[in-house]
Task: structure prediction
Amino acid sequence: MRNLTLHTMGLGSDNADNKDGTRKVDVSTNLSMINCPTILTGMSHEVRTHMNAIVAFSYLMNRNSNNDSEREEFSNQILASCEQLIGLLDNFLDSAIIESGKLTTDLRICKLTNVLDELLAEFRDMIKREGQQDVVLVTESCPDPTDVIIDSDRVFRVIRILFQNALQNTNSGYIKIGYEFRDEKVTFYVLDSGQGYFKCKEFLHTEDLNGSLAKYNDTVSAINITLAKKIISILGGAVWIECNGLTGTGIYFSVPAKETAEGSDININKFVNSMIAI
Result:
């Protein structure tokens, strides 16, 4: 198990450098994507790009001269463009919902040993679809089964965003996902051996999306990382970043989690589907 030396950091919004040289991100920042012209311009470009790909490959599929292999390739390209387009719109709209103050949390009893299981098959399939067979998915978790109360859907969403970000920046090597439970906090992490550390650090620390996008023209990463920060903030958590190797990225986030006693009589309805206004 990786020694997560930063897990003792608090959940406040202090943005100062720590004694070990790392920097905790202020997740209380109100970065607005709706009011960011560069984001809107980038969104328009991304939408047009994926729509053009869908139209083009749909046209190619209708040719009678296509063999089965070509049809399968065109179909996979259409599916990939559809998934990327849906993911982009979902993340942008969810960020807008958070900005409106309408998003709520949904606390559930969750077994930490199973918290990543349902995501792993999805991630492996994603690696295969993207044709990145040189990327190895590694997972780590605590050996002891622990039931905690967290918003598992939101936590899964953040992990999914961070994995997609890691896969985008890693052509070969590994992506490692894991967690640790300590002092009523669960710390999750996504590490990669890719090339995206400086870009991720910029988007994670930025208070000016227009300026950061002028430096790194990557609308998808800007939207995804900004959304992840906002979700973590709603969960009352903290997020930080470390350099993994030379240019690889390690993004960590912790959220409060109450441990449930094994065998205790818990009123699940007290927690499941409970809504907390933000």
Remarks:
- The chain has two domains: 24-31+105-276, 37-100.
- Residues 68-100 form the longest helix (33 residues).
- Residues 1-23, 263-278 have pLDDT under 50 and may be disordered.
- The helical segments are 37-61, 68-100, 117-129, 152-169, 197-205, 209-215, 219-234.
